[in-house]
Structures are given as C-alpha cells and as structure tokens.
Amino acid sequence: MSDLTPSALSDLARAAGTRVERAWQAARLVRLLGGYRWVGLYDVSPTEISVIAWDGPEAPVHPRFPVTQGLNGAAVAQRAPVIVQDVTSDPRYLETIAGTRGEMIHLVLAPSGAVVGTLDVESDRVDAFSARDEELLAVCARELGWLWDQADP
User: Fold this and answer.
1) Which of 5, 25, 60, 108 is the most exposed place for a label (fewest CB within 10 A)?
2) Does domain 7-149 have CATH number 3.30.450.20?
3) 38 in Cβ contact with 57 (< 8 Å)
C-alpha cells in the first residue's frame, strides 16, 4: 500500500485478511491521509453503533452505544455528515478518547441508501477541520463501501 491516496482504500477490499484486519488497515490509512489524531470505523445497526476498528493513541471509551447517542448518532439521525469544531460546545458529544476537541463523522451508505457505517475522525485542536477534510472523508467513505458489503458472518 505504497500509494497514499483514498483509492488505496478500495484496494483493501481485495487484500488478504479478515474484515476486521482490513478495517484496521483502512483506519490507519485514513489517519495518515488526513493527518488525524484518531480515526474510527463503526457499524450502524437499527439500535446500536459499534466500533469495528480504530487507529490512534487509545481505544474508544464507548466501543458500543445506542444509535441515538453521540455525534455519530446525530449523523445517522440527520443522514448527513456532522462536523463539530469544538466538542465542548456540543451537548451531543459522547467522549471517544481523552483530549478530543474536534470531531467529524461521515456516513457510509449501502447501495439501498441505508446507513450501514460511519467514519469518525478526531483532533485535539479546536477548528481543526477544513472543507478539504470534509471532501477527503466523503471520498474515503465512498471508497470504504466494500467493508460493509463484505461483512464477516
């Protein structure tokens, strides 16, 4: 994976390893692409959001939570990306890792249009995310669709 572009994410669909192993690789790649402090990939069910894989300084405080909670839950409910430049000012924020100040979530949609996953990136800085970050995450979320098409039984 020497090609550090979002298209390298789709190459992981054909890589060896389990879904979870490839999700870890994808989280790491997204983190490198954007220079983010933390990246998480989450499954979305009708009732719960649960982490598949993450890359960053520590595991998420809440690896599973109700689909109605947190900024991930807000993105799912709105069916739109959520960008919060200062999480201390947003009551919907559910801590992922200590020291987070900015968080951005982008949805992964199934061909049917159903929300099947989220791509969550975090920063330790206020106002860390730009239009470039939003565009990058949109592309990455599209490139990662295979991760939900090929879920392990």
Assistant:
1) 5
2) no
3) yes
